[in-house]
Amino acid sequence: MRRKDVVLMATVTSFEALERPSRSELRQFAELFEPLFAASSEEARRQAVAALSQCQTIPSAVAFFIASQPITISAPFIAASKCLDDQTLITIARTQGAAHARAIVRRENLSPMVIDALVGLRHAPEDVQAARVKPMVAKSQPDEAEDPARDEALRERLRAMAAHVVRPESDRLGLRTITAMQEALLVRFARNRESDLFATALADTLSASRWLAERIMLDISGHQLATTLKGIGMPRNEAMLILERLYHHLDELEGGVPQSEHLWDTLDADECGRRVEAWGRADRYTYEERRLTAAEPAANQPATLRTASSRS
Predict the structure, then answer these.
(1) Predicted confidence (pLDDT) per residue in 72-92, tens digit
(2) Does residue 29 sit in helix, strand or coil?
(3) Which InterPro entries does this entry report, sorted A to Z (predicted)?
(4) Which of 20, 48, 19 is closest to 34 using CA atoms?
């Protein structure tokens, strides 16, 4: 065992010395690390993980492997390594349990995406939480077992972080986001003032009925369309063009600035996203209700009449 520990640490030390490891060196390290790690003592594993937590570049497979180890080994790596991207951190939090989530919370500069995922994880139903935490508890030290007071403190910290974080506009956090093709179509139809085609393209972008798209456009102030465009992540310049082409008053200057910009800047991207999603849910509910209502008369017809009608 002692010999294998030495080999593991020598391999890690050699890898650390590589300032910019090549693709082949990364692949070779990934192939060597896991079997050496498995054959070494727990103390050697801790030392190896602590050393690798300071490396700037590690194969993604190795980073995920280390972060998935028991928290007594992986904690320093999870809390400090720059080789764990947001998606990996979220996966680790969801699959490994509360102790791993607490280690993630100790990281500096958590992204809004990770913060929201951690908040959502802590608010999951209790039976789901128990299923996620159970495997972790079995391999944790006694002080890492579930502690209600500690968990509540974690929840409060996450809530505070989520409430004060400033999210970049590019961070959509699961909201509907316009595609490049949809963006190009909306801009084209707005530039040509083809409102009928614009409404069709907007309905397709929202995965909604034509009725919802027309209702949004019928707000002559342009507020609802601006809310929609910001809610689906339309770039600012393209949104300005659309609003000014479809609503002429928004092209007028106010204090040397087009009214479209004043309107756009008063809107909060997160709130717009939530509003668009709410409109979409209401539209789907209404559309389904209409479809069922229209189907009822046919369903209530005598069987012979329905058969004759279908043949015709």
Answers:
(1) 999 999 999 999 988 889 888
(2) helix
(3) DUF2336
(4) 48
